[in-house]
Design a protein that fits this description.
It is found in: Membrane. The protein is mainly alpha-helical. Helix content is 49%, strand content 0%.
């Protein structure tokens, strides 16, 4: 058990990089959308092209893209 934990401890960066090889492919909207639909947000995000993986994606451009929609 301790050998496994030492392996994870010393290889954590490599493990995270391997987990980050697939782009973000789904998102969840929380709360009530009164003026903007989920389809509007989805279309806006699709215009950005392929996103990076969970660890490598900078969320600021995503936030800016969504905030650029009317009534957000």
């Amino acid at each position: 058990m301790s050998f496994f934990l030492l392996g994870v401890y010393f290889n954590w960066q490599s493990i995270l990089e391997k987990m980050d090889d697939k782009p973000i492919s789904a998102f969840a909207l929380v709360g009530q959308n009164t003026f903007t639909t989920a389809d509007d947000i989805k279309e806006s995000l699709l215009k950005m092209g392929e996103l990076k993986g969970f660890w490598g994606q900078d969320v600021a451009p995503i936030q800016e893209q969504i905030e650029a929609l009317p009534w957000v």
